[in-house]
Amino acid sequence: MISGLTPLAVTSVTTSVALTVSMGLVLVAMIVWLARVEDIRSYVPASDIGGGAGQTEYGHEEKPGGITRWLTTVDHKDIGVLYGVYSVITLAWGGLSVLIMRTELLDPPATLIQSTTYNALLTSHGITLLFLFGTPILAAFANYFVPLLIGADDMAFPRINSIAFWLLPPGALLIWAGFFIPGIAPSQTSWTMYTPLSIQQPSPAVDLMLLGLHLTGVSATMGAINFIATIFTERAEEVDWANLDIFSWTVLTQSGLILFSFPLLGSALVMLLLDRNFGTTFFTVGGGGPLLWQNLFWFFGHPEVYIIVLPPMGLISIILPKFSGRKLFGFKFVVYSTLAIGVLSFGVWAHHMFATGMDPRLRASFMAVTLAIAVPSAVKTFNWMTTMWNGRLRLTAPMLFCIGFVSLFIIGGVTGVFLASIPVDLVLTDTYYVVGHFHFILMAILTAVFAGVYYWFPLYTGKWYQRGLAKWHFWLFMIGSNLTFFAMILLGYAGMPRRYATYNVDIGPVAQFTDLHQVATLGAYLIGLSGIIFLWNIVQSWLEGPPVQSSDPWELAEDGLLTNEWQWFDHQRETAITDGGAESEETDTDTDDNSEETA
Known about the structure:
By secondary structure, this protein is mainly α. 67% of the residues lie in helices and 0% in strands. It contains 19 helices and no strands. The chain is globular, with a radius of gyration of 25 Å.
């Protein structure tokens, strides 16, 4: 027996070590397998669907059918769909967990779940939506559309692309393991995993979560390298840096941020695992530095915000002009502001630590940089609004979500500027105000995702979605978001701390807290209902929706706004008609008339 430890603690340490060693062996086996893959650039898509393949000495056949196709595919479009399906599952998990939490907060005492369960759901909600949904859903868009937008046959490293995706499901299972394995309590560290709390929690679920985060980090890094290589080396001859589309610019910048930030998080996670299992003292109170963890975590954490917001900005920049009838105003400034955000995002991490007692001179410098990063964000907002000004607006579902993005992003951005001010931050830190501000940004990101899903729905399905349901989705989502997160802003002003499972106390405006929590919960239910409508609309329309009748379903050609992916779509339709696959659909009633959505 290890000296000084109880039998239970010894069992816990032994289990943690065994799990850590097992995962290490898995990673080593994976590295060995990767090293044995020969000539990874030799891949050719298994069918002619992927663009200009079929010109090399490597023969290829039709794609396999059924589940085999999805388990073995290296086609960038298939992998994009896999990322999308995976993200929907993780979004459902994260959404369900927060609905349980919000139901618990309808009244002050703990009436539905115990505080430990609340803490576990809180941890799972944050990590799931940031690591398992936020980055993968953007990888879905990037995988599917970046090669099409830049005229590439596929990603630069298709097999690595596939491996990067298949690291995610085991990562998610490890992160959620505490909810499924009997006898192991789920992790309750919150998504920030602050030390010494995360060191002292004995549950092996914490180690499993850290290992799962490792896998997701490796996945994101492999994907980032692939996107950088693809955009640099696989562009068509006619696509140069001057006319590279804005979405690819944002993906390129995002990939650079991932490349510099995720490895640092991985290193910090290894140090945390060592502290938990091998007695090192990197982050301990005695001999180490708990604030070191905060510095390392937020050096990754704040760029992570821009990792998940830059591609949505690219989606808005590419979709919003299409329904404004004009090109993006100030394209070069939008690109420059993207690059500026990428650089400045590494100089603002300590504004999360103003209340930790850090040197006031450092606080002032981080406050200045945090205020400065608002400038390029404001430039983008100005350009989006100027693009719409006097434009020929068409209020389609993608356009509604673009406008929703701009409005939510402005609210999230303005409330964030207040937190950049040291005196204000010291008052509002760790209150619901921070939660409200942050979630306005996250809801803006979601609106951009929905805009992208609806905009490209005719391209990747060949079908139309139900437009009435799409508008119900939009309004319920917007009303729910504003109800929930404005209530949280007010809760923060009233002094309600965040991360509390209950608020059944004798001091403070408890009645006001209760009313605002009930409003926030009502808004969360509306968001959940909008999500169900969205999922039904997408699945039902994909299976049974009316087929599109034109390769330009949004009538972009007349404004000169038809981009490369729609030209690829036109080629696919021509090929299908030549093969006789779509002739019967040509006789269907014309369903492409979207004039009813023209403002």
